Amino acid sequence: MRSTFLPLFFSFALAIFISSDVYSDTPSGLELEIERAKKPMAWDLGPEMVDISQYPPEIQADYKVFATKCGKCHTLARPLNSPYCTAEEWNNYVNKMMRKPGSGITPVEGKQIFDFLVYDSKVRKLSNPDAWNKHIDQILAAFQEKYGHAREKASQ
Q: Do residue 1 and residue 76 come from a single domain?
């Protein structure tokens, strides 16, 4: 009887400790990541939406996954207005986001997000680099004016 009681007692005590206020005051990895993601970045000041009505149906479906998963932790403006343009840059970025605690991005969803971002970059960024660079300069100037410094690193 005693050998059955002790493990049960310790399990109960552990459950109480875990649910206590002392433990709950410690932010989880997910909570810390979401707090970090809320810090403003220059790219957050750009448009948060993209007109995808002319994009192929599969890319429109990929956009929905992108909006749901990526909007969970930070603005959609952040990746949409970031200077990332190439498949390699997006691959690194999406893989980094997939490793974030609580992102919940599966490999299949990661591929969909990647496909949308690469396609969108070709359409909006790489097709007219002069206009895109002007857009980036305007965002950086607005960020400088609002926050007094340029936080250009898009990967944070």
A: no
